[in-house]
């Protein structure tokens, strides 16, 4: 039962990683802006060794391989996510439990990755929604534990 929970949590994490990779690979200008910022910061530190305008030329093409890497990360993260989700279904007492746990893990991981990578913030309504989702998850897990304890007592 604990293995199913861990697999479901990992499936949600890899699902969030896949969606962040998709946003990076298909996003119009995020990687190019990130490259511009990094090179500009580096150029300020090494001001004497660079000529003006070099960073814009480099960032015009560097974002393309980075997008391809993010695309590969998208497909590999999706494959790992489905593997963990399948294992969660196999090791959980019910498919609903594995699905809700994976979904909650995905929401929380997406919020964390969105904040860290993209600087996103969420409105109060989003936090209310995720809190209700987590409350439902705790109720689902709690009722499963009580049911298993009653089944064990009946067998004795």
TrEMBL record:
The keyword Endoplasmic reticulum does not apply. Residues 1-18 form the signal peptide. It comes from Pangasianodon hypophthalmus (Striped catfish). This is EamA domain-containing protein. Keywords: Membrane, Signal, Transmembrane, Transmembrane helix. The chain crosses the membrane at residues 64-85, 124-145. It comes from the Eukaryota. The keyword Cytoplasm does not apply.
